[in-house]
Amino acid sequence: MRKKRPVTTSQAQSQSLIQDSQMTLIQRGSTTAFLFLLIGFLLLVVGSPPSAAQDVPRIEVFGGYSYLRFDSRSFGFAGSTNLNGYNLAPAFNIFHGFGVVGELSGQYGSHLNLRDVAVGPQILYPRNNLIFFAHVMYGDARTHVSVGNGPGDTARVIVAGAGADLHYSSRLSIRVVQVDYLRTSLFRGTQNNFRISTGLVYHWGAIQEKKHKVPGKAP
Amino acid sequence: MTPIKQQSLVCIVLASLAGLAGCSSSNHVAYVTLGQGNTIAAFRVDNHSGSLTKIVGSPFNAGNSPISILVHPSNKFVYAANQIGNDISLFTVDQSTGALTEVGPRAAAGIAPAFLTMDSGGHFLFAANQASNSISVYSIDAAKGTLTEIQGSPFVTGANPVALAITPSGKFLYVATPNLQSVFGYSVGSGVLQPVPDSPVLVDVGPVSLAVDPAGHFLYVANFIANTLSVLAIDPNSGALMAIAGSPFTTCTSTTTTCTNNPVWVAVHPSGKFVYTANKGTSNVSVFSIASTTGVPTQITNSPFATGSTPVFASVDSTGRFLFIGNQSSRNITGFSINQSTGALPAGVVGAATTSAPTSMITTK
After folding, report:
1. Angle between helices A9-28 and A32-47 (to 10 degrees)
2. How confident is the model over B1-10, as pLDDT tens digits?
3. Separation in Å, CA of A98 to nearest CA in chain B
4. Rounded CA gap, B245 and B14, in Å?
5. DSSP secondary structure letters along A158-195
6. B5 and A10: CB-CB below 8 Å?
7. Does A75 sit within 8 Å of B56, measured CB to CB?
8. Among chain A residues, CA nearest to B14
9. Nearest residue on chain A to B39, alpha-carbon basis
10. pLDDT per residue over A26-83, tens digit each?
11. 20 to 30 A Cα–Cα from A13, which one of A42, A110, B34, B275?
């Protein structure tokens, strides 16, 4: 079992800085930010020094805030639309580095909203007190537009994203950030949307990493 | 560097980079009246390609048989003449979506308002009342967009007025009256109309559409039955009209000097270099280059250019880069990219289908 690690001042400041950065992105409303963040996480995973093996939870449920930059230009709008809402995502980890995740997500704005239900595989990569993850999900998205006669539409959604959870206690982690790309095909168009989420992860159970025997060494 | 510090640093750098990447708007909106459906369709116009993207939620409910439409120079208000409703609707424009929301009550007009025009400053709106032979004039509240009919309105004009044109200065208003084969001219002072000298002026058979060049030197008249284009010089002081030498000019090609192409709409390019006529009888659009000093139109090589079936209006995009033709029978909009040096129209593409026959179109700036 993992040991509880207290959150240090340095870590708290780091989280604050990260959250400040997220707010900057939201205010700027630039979809490019998501791409940079996604690349950044890959760099982090590659750049992090190896450490002792870490357990991953058997079951986890994420719940939190999410911001979506919706590509409403295909709706004839002047530009993209900022939406705010929730993201709820249960996951079941089958192996130490692999599991299945689902999500129920909804974001809302003055002119439209978007909700989606999706499920798919997820890979995990624990490093120090962080667990990096990446997933691909497939499901349905539903939008309602509060313009004119108020039409709605349902279409397929593909979600691809990644993020990192910061270990807080035996039952709780903080999802520092989760960045997702959502491709939808609503109203006969194609929308390339980006979403950023943050919140808490509650987990149960643990899966230990398997130790490999080193040949030639005595037990 | 610890992993946490490393993570923070990367995030800050990424956020800073993201902040440098801005998004810019590169489009505007076109509104199309659909008389039979009592609605107004809205499309986003791409400034680069001219492609039309229907705004989700469009078409928007309008009055009874909208037939003519205008956008206020502020881009905040849209006005539509309701031909059967005998009134004028005011809509506010949602700047982020382009959606229209009607603001009541509708302003009463004469009988069968068929055409609207507005001065370039957006101070006065003019409506041609086709069945009551008059012009209604309204002052426009710049903040709310509301219309107030001015004292003395409506002003009597010739029988069956179907089209209006106002000079860029806003000093002179012209009215096409096909029953009289004439164009009436008025000076405009605080919205009040006074006939200009020698008004009305006889043109050709069936004048149905008017357009003034951006410099305010010439008035172009599409004569539907005569298949001609009349060109009238505008006296800059009095607003009086005088036909230029050679007017009227055929809208047929030089090789087919007689035809029944029935020019139903005339539009001038914002540069003043080209004039377009939508030809309802032959389902095409004729393009003329204009001599800047004399105003003489000369049909360009390869003109006319094919449109959809039975075009009823031509609308030059506010950027001057695109020409849109509304097709009555095929119920769609044909979009052309305009060659800025010759005025020629490469093969038109269907810009958008409409739920019923389009009757007029306007684009925001």
Report:
1. 150
2. 444 444 444 4
3. 23
4. 68
5. EEEEEEEEEE-SSSEEEEEEEEEEEEE-GGGS-EEEEE
6. yes
7. yes
8. A36
9. A148
10. 444 445 555 555 555 555 555 554 444 578 899 999 999 999 999 999 999 999 999 9
11. A42
Question: To the nearest whole angstrom, how far is the Cα of A215 from the nearest Cα of chain B?
Answer: 32
Query: Are B226 and B178 contacting, i.e. CB atoms less than 8 angstroms apart?
Result: no
Query: Is the interface score ipTM higher than 0.95?
Result: no
B110/chain A closest Cα distance in angstroms:
29
Q: How far apart are CA B221 and CA B186, in angstroms?
A: 16
pLDDT confidence bin for A219, thresholds 50/70/90: very low
Q: Which residues of A touch B11 (CB under 8 A)?
A: 17-18, 21, 37, 40, 177
pLDDT at B226: 95
Tens digit of pLDDT for each residue in B155-207? 999 999 999 999 999 999 999 999 999 999 999 999 999 999 999 999 999 99
- B195: cis peptide before it, omega within 30°? no
pLDDT digits (tens, 9 = 90+) for B14-53: 343 333 333 444 679 999 999 999 999 999 999 888 999 9
- Residue of A11, A36, A114 best to disrupt the B interface, most CBs of B under 10 A: A36
Length of chain B: 365
For chain B, give the percent of residues with pLDDT over 70.
92
HSE value, Cβ hemisphere, 13 Å, CA-based, for B281: 15
State the pLDDT confidence band at B86, using cuts at 50, 70 and 90: very high
pLDDT at A17 over 60: no
CB contact under 8 A, B44 and A73: yes
CB contact under 8 A, A33 and B15: yes
- pLDDT tens for each residue of A76-95: 999 999 999 999 999 999 99
Question: Of the candidates B46, B110, B138, which has an alpha carbon nearest to the alpha carbon of residue B352?
Answer: B46
Look-up: residue for tokens 């120079």? B73
By the 10 Å C-beta count (0-12 exposed, 13-18 middle, 19+ buried), B255 is classed as exposed
DSSP A75-87: GT-SS-EEEEEEE
Put simply, whether A147 touches B (Cβ < 8 Å) is yes
SS3 state at A105: strand
